[in-house]
Amino acid sequence: MFFKKKWNPRGLHVYITGGSQGLGLALAILVAKKGAHVSIVARTQSKLEKALIELEAVRQSPDQIFRSYSFALDNAESSAAALKAASEGHGGQVPDAVITCAGASKPMFLLDMEEQDLTQGMINGYWVQAWTAFAAAKQMAREGKKGKIVLVSSTLGFMSFVGYSSYSPAKHALRGLAEALHSELMLYGIDTHIFFPPTMYTPGFDEENKTKPAITRTIESTDEGLTAEQAASALLIGVENGEAHITGDLITSLFRASTRGAAPRSNAALDVVYDFIALIGVPIWRRSVDKQVLAHREEHQQYLQKKGFF
Amino acid sequence: MFFKKKWNPRGLHVYITGGSQGLGLALAILVAKKGAHVSIVARTQSKLEKALIELEAVRQSPDQIFRSYSFALDNAESSAAALKAASEGHGGQVPDAVITCAGASKPMFLLDMEEQDLTQGMINGYWVQAWTAFAAAKQMAREGKKGKIVLVSSTLGFMSFVGYSSYSPAKHALRGLAEALHSELMLYGIDTHIFFPPTMYTPGFDEENKTKPAITRTIESTDEGLTAEQAASALLIGVENGEAHITGDLITSLFRASTRGAAPRSNAALDVVYDFIALIGVPIWRRSVDKQVLAHREEHQQYLQKKGFF
Fold this sequence. Notes:
The structure is a homodimer.
Chain A: E1 13-17, H1 22-33, E2 37-42, H2 45-57, E3 66-70, H3 76-88, E4 97-100, H4 115-143, E5 148-152, H5 168-184, E6 191-195, E7 200-201, H6 203-209, H7 214-220, E8 226-227, H8 228-240, E9 245-246, H9 250-258, H10 268-295, H11 297-307
Helix pairs in contact in A: 1-8, 3-4, 4-5, 9-10
Protein name (chains A, B): NAD(P)-binding protein
């Protein structure tokens, strides 16, 4: 509806944050296979080096430029500096596509959280992508580059439940940012997309499981999840097709359709079907989740007592 | 469906942030008229004093306790301190209902924003309420108080457009927080609600108009808006009826129904009708907004040139 020609990354400069592992790396490999120049950004130098070796292994042409940049992305300055560093490798030009896969989640009970868990939740779920998006939008507008900005939210950007009071706000915030940018960046011909992956079996998932409450794990157990490669493929197909809200699994698609609001649509007919299924299915799911939470009450009281909360 | 008996604030302690003006003050007056004890929190002492006079004017009984507390609410510590101060006036017990009306918006073009505009957007739109909600949830759980937490988002917590890239993320984040809390706080019998007001003709609205881009104003001009009193009344009716997502005008109700996702529903049948209207109406609205944005391109380029952006 909004974009007619399929987007093709061949020969373009694709900038991927969180590109040393998980979704970011899988996506970097995918666009490298399609002939893109790829810049990956992450904190850990050793992981970046290993990732570059994987990129070299799928090189399609000697002209392709693969580079890695070690930067923290949790603040405005260094997010802008990372983008600038990657631009310098391409004649000072801003990348054609900026895809923000960086992020982390630390599921916990609210009562176990300290102030810092909450602020870090917003930094690692929102700012770690927002600062890059802001820097990219400004630079693209400045250069007149009709580029692409792709944010990565989560199924938890459409809904939420126990355990995610520091993460869902950040992932919802990204959705709000994407919609504001989608509207505003039309002024410059810049496209905004946002991807909502479900559980992904990545190093990040192993990390978040360390703090995840048992009840949260139980509720999630119905989510089949995607591998990093499946998620990367879904993201890229969505971007190629010009979808504003991109999903890669049925459950999240049901949530997408039933929280569509004013989001630009790509397949209105299919979304009506999804919306209808969600109208019946989601309340049943919600009720079963509520039941699980209520059934957990007593065990939770014991847990709090043991921790000396009262 | 989820709550059978109407909630009644009579004799309860209702704690309202942003209670010295606008929605917060209108709500304070409303619950005072219904016989509640009211604590209002805001920064400016002189405004609090004036507000207390208005509360005294609607006093129903000599037993009602009306107090005001001057605190900044933009950080965790002082938000918790404000709640503690108000609790001390009631035998050290946490309030029965905590309603967070504090907040501010500063609409701007993204390209005109500095780092600080973005971080302040999140503080004034999200943290100014989230810190109070976190403190209240912990204290209610600790005391076994089956209280109420009511957040105040915005129509811009359901959707967004040009000018709101610092505000919508914050208002979306509140929605995510409300949904996570709604699920988690079931463990303690605490209810969570969230109100999504449209434009409200309040001092805050006059303030945001100072920076609002013309295109943003044009797009908003179809929104009829509510007075602070109308909005306060809608909020209270929603809380009394136990609605999780509360709206007070038709447009926002359409967005509520079409972004309902997994939010607990109060009137499923009506929401199906709203969802259907939204299915047809919202894309038409979105298209007209997109057209307005695109038509503004040239004027915007001139604006940027004049500002020396390029």
